[in-house]
Amino acid sequence: MLATTLNGILQQVDGVLLGKTAQIKLAISCLLAGGNLLLEDLPGMGKTTLAEALARSFGLAFTRVAFTSDLLPADLTGLSIYDQTSQSFCFKPGPLFSQVLLADEINRASPRTQSALLEAMASGVVSVDGNSYPLPQPFAVIATQNGLDQAGTAALPESQLDRFLMRLSLGYPDRAAETQLLRGAGSSLSNLNSLLTSAELQTLQKEVQQVFVSDALLSYVLDLLTASRNINNKIGLSPRAGQGLLAAARSWALLDGRNHVEPDDVVAVFPAVAEHRLDAGNHQDNNYPLSNKLLEQVDGLC
Known about the structure:
Blueprint: H1 2-14, H2 21-32, E1 36-40, H3 47-57, E2 62-66, H4 73-77, E3 78-83, E4 88-93, E5 100-104, H5 111-123, E6 125-128, E7 131-134, E8 140-145, H6 158-161, E9 164-168, H7 175-182, H8 198-209, H9 215-228, H10 239-255, H11 263-278, H12 289-301
Parallel strand pairs: 1-8, 1-9, 2-5, 5-8
Antiparallel strand pairs: 3-4, 6-7
């Protein structure tokens, strides 16, 4: 039943974004692991479509915010408004109070606004006027960003990149998929069904945490982390990154219908989890030179 439902979500989203099965599977595993997702690519590649298709398929409340240079923190978090009837200030929640926030073109916003988003990603709460307000659960940020060569963009700080479990690029479709798109063969977002509820997703996220990891597999992950910290002039993977890598590998195994993690699960998710932490530069063609080098290096030591 579980495998059938998750496979149905994969097929449904793949019917909208034709020819992007690998990226969709990674995005689904990111949500199952409870992580935030960064989509980096050129305009018009389907980043926003992927985010909304995932939210609809998982039955999650979805909000899109365009991150422009004049976006203020209060535009995200909400603000306290004086109510004359009660003669007190009442908090009016902002668009952050959703289950999936699409932060569109995130690298166009100011550092102050980025800081407000970072708190929500880090702790799942929003602080306004000295009060803390919990965000709905499950909660995930799916952010899109254009390349740094695009006008009006700025690089995200390393601390914020580390809060994204994965960074993906969709890339250009192959000729067969683009032919289908031009013929209008892709499904419409309005036709997508909710195949899960938010409560069922939370249950799945708890199941991911129970997927078995052997001592040998844990040693393999530790070898990758250690090797990343020996790359010249590069910041190695943090303990948070190691935890995220293990969570992503567990969710990948669950997607494949297994209750234990295999080395191939780690290999499948490692580039998407590691590359943006090792190198903040653009990789819009899904090339992961540092991650692949580490995988080869550690495999050679085994």
